[in-house]
Task: inverse folding
């Protein structure tokens, strides 16, 4: 299945085999981010109404709903778990299961992106302040800050082996 959030407040899930829409839901606000958990049993949707909703991807039934401090800009699901990280327009990000696990505060400007490492033990965040801290997912402590960044970041991601991080900058470079 593939899921998409659209600015018209609809969440669509498609069947990849047939190319047909499996189901559609009306949301109270536009979906900002969507992600499946690694086991495929949960579809996590962050919307502009400061809510993160967890749906059953088979039938669209609502399994959980969490209120966040701000409308989510980014959403990342921990590989192999139901944990997810969401950040809004502020200078921090929050790790959620049920309830809130931890708030990660290191940036001096808005957080633009967060991503879990492939093994789920670390996460990296990038901000408009040009900072790229790497966090220990278990403790919430910064274990490294990546050097050589002097511009606002738009996105960050781990390589499949977890040994490298790539950053895309707001000025269009990478």
Result:
């Amino acid at each position: 299945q593939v899921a998409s959030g659209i600015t018209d407040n609809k969440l669509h899930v498609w069947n990849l085999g047939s190319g047909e829409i499996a189901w559609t839901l009306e949301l109270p606000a536009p979906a900002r981010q969507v992600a499946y958990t690694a086991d495929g049993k949960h579809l996590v949707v962050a919307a502009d109404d400061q809510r993160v909703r967890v749906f059953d991807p088979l039938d669209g039934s609502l399994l959980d709903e969490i209120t966040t401090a701000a409308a989510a800009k980014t959403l990342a699901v921990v590989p192999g778990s139901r944990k997810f990280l969401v950040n809004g327009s502020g200078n921090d990000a929050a790790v959620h299961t049920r309830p809130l696990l931890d708030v990660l505060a290191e940036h001096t400007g808005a957080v633009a992106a967060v991503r879990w490492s492939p093994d789920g033990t670390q996460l990296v965040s990038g901000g408009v302040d040009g900072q790229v801290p790497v966090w220990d997912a278990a403790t919430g402590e910064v274990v490294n800050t990546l050097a050589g960044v002097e511009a606002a970041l738009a996105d960050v991601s781990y390589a499949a082996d977890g040994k490298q991080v790539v950053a895309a900058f707001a000025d269009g470079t990478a």
